[in-house]
């Protein structure tokens, strides 16, 4: 075939030919790749030899590799460079892919071979990663319905197909709602309080739309600073209400989809023998069960909630002394007053920091940090095609010059790109037939794009986000191993955020910041006093933000511990969060209808993972504190025991090998100065 998705690219390291891919290539490529993958599965089943690890389990691991690569390209571009045609195609592909998954997971003769090998596991003399692959393969079949009756298998297949379609539709509704709203301003008086960078950003957005004045929207680089800086409470309220009512009613109403998705997950779990979706999911996490997750959330919420309420009360009192008329702090006012309070008490304004974080300098500094900790370096590759002109490619090399990965960086917002920031792979690390294929790693963000006369300047929050996603990327780039399902970030969900959240710590380290932060216009290094104020303000409103995250975790559990069909999305949300509110509940607003993480983003019954991993990273960084924040000894241990290992062993074992003991939740409460 001449389909560029199905033929070797001929480029260094097998880099994708993004410049050759067209919409019309995807559907034929998927159909052909599925046909070939099924043939590979059929060959395993038809093998006349007795089932063995090599001819069954290992062969199955590499079956469908071509389909994985086509999927890796399409579904990553669906998030980063999408349009209505791509979204429509995704819905068309969903049943094809679900049918293939069922072809494998409900394949009785295939499962019989895997079960046969599993029964012999103690006598096979397998290496640790082989033993883990065998155990994961067997459990994967069982957890995907292999032991169901024929009638129940048919039901399971139907439920899975319906669920995948609804999850896609949910995400599309959130994207459409986010893109549908703009705040168009024509009077300069309406810009009161907005710093120059945000005014220029709004003017640039207006020019791109062919409009006069200034335009602000619900993407992160626009929405968050607007609420921080706009002195116009009426405009802040409009923005806040638009953001927090996304997909609540109207053409893209997600309330029904929330109910349907949660109920489908419940029905799937119960069909497989679990009381709820959370019971099903948590079995394969570090936490293992619902009581353990609740204990973690309770141990953190206990001291954090009163501390957070004190923070809000102090802010309200301070605001009322300065003319604020509301009896309670309104949610659209919190960020604005919080920014003013921080500016006065810590003499620290976010816009004061921004000129020191030019994106180009931050890229160099983040790469330099990786060099200092892990000895790797990044060389630009301008000869490789990209899927958008903003995307950059780097060759990642070890100290010895060994190629580790291609790293794609996509920094700026645009229509068709979902909000937020994430790391992903276009291709996982694998070694079929013993021939290593290094990974293709990507991070995607929505940082402010350079203006006509201004560089891209990051807020300190965006610098922290960069470090976070880069931590995930390191997990992918430094991966070692032979089985793609167990390398890089293919670890249990409540472990995967450890490397990313660990990297965030350096955003507050004066020694690192002083090494690169220079004023974009004057070139002057960041003043020591400013760095010290930043470090001092690190835990400003830490309890408030901790409770905010814990609330998301509780809401996630409420949706996914259901043992019967939910009836009312808004009522479920109110009940789940009633005991831990910090700001007034506003009618006509909802978290659930735009909660991509749990309804379409892979974090269902797993949002607690962020806090679980924060406990791990606080405990891990305390070792860097003890040995030195650039300690190669600690970094080498973290690389050897965590980053390179992926999911090749139980994550609790990997953690204890690195830290020497189990994690301690109090490490996080102490780091945040809540206790």
Structure description:
There is one protein chain. This protein starts with 22 loop residues before the first helix and ends with a helix. Helix 17 (460-477) runs antiparallel to helix 19 (498-504). A five-stranded mixed beta sheet has the order 3-4-5-7-6. It has a two-stranded antiparallel ribbon with strand order 1-2. It has 28 helices and seven strands. The model has no long low-confidence stretch (mean pLDDT 95). It has helices spanning 23-46, 53-62, 65-80, 84-105, 108-119, 128-143, 150-180, 196-208, 220-229, 233-244, 255-271, 277-282, 290-321, 331-345, 350-353, 359-374, 460-477, 493-496, 498-504, 510-513, 528-536, 542-560, 569-577, 596-599, 609-627, 632-643, 651-659, 666-671, and strands spanning 182-185, 214-217, 377-380, 392-397, 403-410, 422-427, 440-444. It has four domains: 12-105 and 107-147, Glutathione S-transferase Yfyf (Class Pi), Chain A, domain 2; 181-244, no CATH class; 255-346 and 542-607, Neurolysin, domain 3, CATH 1.10.1370; 357-527 and 610-658, Neurolysin, domain 3. By secondary structure, it is mainly alpha-helical. The radius of gyration is 25 Å and the shape is globular.
Summarize the structure.
The protein is mainly alpha-helical. It has helices at residues 23-46, 53-62, 65-80, 84-105, 108-119, 128-143, 150-180, 196-208, 220-229, 233-244, 255-271, 277-282, 290-321, 331-345, 350-353, 359-374, 460-477, 493-496, 498-504, 510-513, 528-536, 542-560, 569-577, 596-599, 609-627, 632-643, 651-659, 666-671, and strands spanning 182-185, 214-217, 377-380, 392-397, 403-410, 422-427, 440-444. It has 4 domains: 12-105 and 107-147, Glutathione S-transferase Yfyf (Class Pi), Chain A, domain 2 (Up-down Bundle), CATH 1.20.1050.40; 181-244, no CATH class; 255-346 and 542-607, Neurolysin, domain 3; 357-527 and 610-658, Neurolysin, domain 3.
């Amino acid at each position: 075939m001449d389909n560029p998705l199905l033929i070797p690219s001929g480029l260094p390291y097998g880099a994708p030919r993004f410049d050759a891919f067209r919409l019309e290539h995807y559907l034929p490529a998927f159909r052909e790749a599925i046909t070939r993958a099924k043939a590979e599965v059929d060959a395993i089943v038809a093998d006349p030899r007795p089932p063995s690890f090599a001819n069954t389990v290992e062969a199955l691991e590499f079956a469908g590799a071509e389909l994985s690569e086509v999927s890796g390209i399409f579904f990553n571009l669906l998030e980063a460079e999408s349009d209505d045609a791509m979204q429509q195609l995704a819905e068309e592909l969903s049943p094809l892919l679900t049918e293939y998954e069922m072809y494998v997971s409900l394949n009785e003769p295939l499962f019989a071979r895997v079960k046969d090998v599993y029964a012999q596991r103690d006598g096979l003399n397998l290496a640790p990663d082989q033993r883990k692959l065998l155990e994961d393969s067997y459990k994967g079949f069982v957890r995907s319905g292999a032991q169901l009756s024929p009638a129940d298998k048919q039901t399971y297949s139907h439920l899975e197909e319906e669920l995948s379609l609804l999850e896609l539709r949910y995400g599309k509704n959130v994207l459409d709602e986010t893109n549908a709203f703009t705040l168009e301003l024509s009077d300069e008086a309406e810009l009161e309080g907005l710093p120059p960078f945000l005014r220029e950003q709004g003017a640039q957005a207006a020019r791109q739309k062919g409009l006069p004045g200034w335009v602000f929207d619900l993407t992160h680089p626009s929405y968050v600073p607007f609420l921080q800086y706009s002195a116009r409470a009426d405009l802040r309220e409009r923005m806040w209400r638009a953001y927090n009512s996304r997909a609540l009613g109207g053409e893209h109403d997600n309330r029904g989809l929330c109910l349907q998705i949660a109920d489908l997950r419940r029905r799937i779990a119960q069909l497989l023998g679990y009381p709820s979706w959370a019971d099903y999911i948590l079995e394969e996490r570090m936490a293992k069960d619902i009581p353990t997750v609740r204990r973690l959330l309770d141990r953190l919420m206990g001291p954090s909630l009163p501390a957070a309420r004190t923070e809000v009360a102090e802010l309200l009192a301070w605001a009322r002394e300065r003319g604020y008329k509301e009896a309670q702090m309104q949610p659209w006012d919190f960020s604005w007053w919080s920014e003013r309070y921080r500016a006065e008490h810590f003499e620290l304004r976010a816009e004061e920091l921004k000129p020191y974080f030019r994106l180009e300098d931050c890229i160099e500094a983040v790469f330099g940090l990786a060099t200092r900790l892990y000895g790797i370096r990044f060389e630009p590759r301008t000869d490789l095609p990209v899927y958008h002109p903003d995307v950059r490619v780097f060759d990642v090399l070890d100290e010895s010059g060994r190629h580790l990965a291609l790293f794609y960086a996509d920094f700026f917002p645009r229509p068709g790109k979902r909000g937020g920031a994430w790391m992903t792979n276009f291709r996982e690390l694998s070694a079929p037939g013993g021939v290593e294929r290094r990974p293709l790693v990507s991070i995607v963000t929505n940082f402010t794009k350079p203006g006509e006369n201004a560089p891209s300047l990051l807020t300190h929050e965006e610098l922290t986000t960069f470090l976070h996603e880069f931590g995930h990327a390191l997990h992918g780039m430094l991966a070692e191993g032979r089985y793609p399902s167990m390398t890089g970030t293919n670890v249990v969900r409540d472990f995967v955020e450890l490397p990313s959240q660990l990297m965030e710590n350096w955003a507050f380290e004066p020694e690192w910041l002083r090494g690169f932060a220079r004023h974009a216009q004057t070139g002057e290094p960041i003043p020591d006093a400013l760095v010290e104020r930043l470090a001092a303000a690190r835990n400003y409103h830490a309890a408030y933000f901790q409770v905010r995250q814990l609330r998301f975790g509780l809401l996630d559990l409420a949706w996914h511990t259901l043992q019967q069909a939910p009836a009312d999305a808004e009522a479920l949300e109110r009940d789940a969060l009633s005991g831990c509110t910090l700001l007034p509940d506003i009618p006509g607003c909802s978290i659930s209808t735009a909660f991509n993480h749990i309804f379409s983003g892979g974090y269902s019954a797993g949002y607690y993972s962020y806090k679980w991993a924060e406990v791990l990273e606080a405990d891990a960084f305390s070792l860097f504190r003890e040995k030195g924040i650039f300690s190669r000894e600690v970094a080498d241990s973290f690389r050897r025991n965590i980053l390179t290992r992926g999911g090749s062993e139980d994550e609790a074992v990997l953690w204890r090998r690195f830290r020497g003991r189990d994690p301690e939740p109090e490490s996080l409460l102490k780091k945040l100065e809540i206790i």
